[in-house]
Amino acid sequence: MTEITALDRAHAAMTEAPEDAGARLRFYERLADCELFMMLTKEVDDGNISPEMFDLADGTFVLLFDREERLAQFADRPVPYAALSGRVVVQMLAGQGIGLGLNLEVAPSSILIPAEAVNWLQQTLEHSPQQVEAALVEVAAPTGLPQVLLTALDSKLATAAGLATAAYLVSVRYAGGGQGHLLGFIDASPAAQSALAKAAGEALTFSGIEAGAMDVGFFASTDVMTAKLDKVGLRFDLPQVEAPKLHQPEIPGSNPDKPPVLK
Length: 263
Hints:
Blueprint: H1 6-16, H2 21-33, E1 35-39, E2 53-56, E3 59-65, H3 68-75, E4 81-85, H4 86-93, E5 98-102, E6 111-113, H5 115-125, E7 136-140, H6 147-157, E8 166-174, E9 179-186, H7 190-205, E10 215-219, H8 224-232, E11 234-237
Helix pairs in contact: 1-2, 2-4, 4-5, 6-7
Protein name: SseB family protein
């Protein structure tokens, strides 16, 4: 049985409801998040890649597949390729007048994505919610946010392994009278904060929610505010990266309970 991928399902939902902007956004989110295999003209040379370009009536396209098997089926011969995330592909091609030929002729999600859509997606991926600077005077349980956003946050944060221990979604009121929602990350390293803010922003954008609906903040587990977030917030646990297990061979004769075997 032919595998149906997450990109296939998102594409099907989009094509079945062409007027549903949310379905289109979720397709582009899957495209940005998934690993894609780009057909090349030659092997990668010192980190430089040379995509195979195809000039069609609708413009110039590179060929991308969400499975190696699909690339092999299309090419019908051994070809060099590079494995890249969708967001890296978009950042690489934006502004160059090049579109994406995705899974052409080999999958239900076969589609030509024009250069204009590539440019739009690159700009969309740059959006991030604002980080909290104003003083928080009240936190409460989150209210009024659609389920589609909560699901998107859960999916997005599940991919942020090791960047923080957890995140809390709360309603907040700021000094000066402002109010809204806050996604507070716990024990995120400074190097991870930008990536986490972008992940939160993408969950908003691809859910069709206004960017101003949620701010982000970063707290240590020992902060007083973290205890308040834990009391009323909706908690998201981020996956943690397991430390590699080192195999230390036992030196013969080093264990008194296991004397060496003499031959």
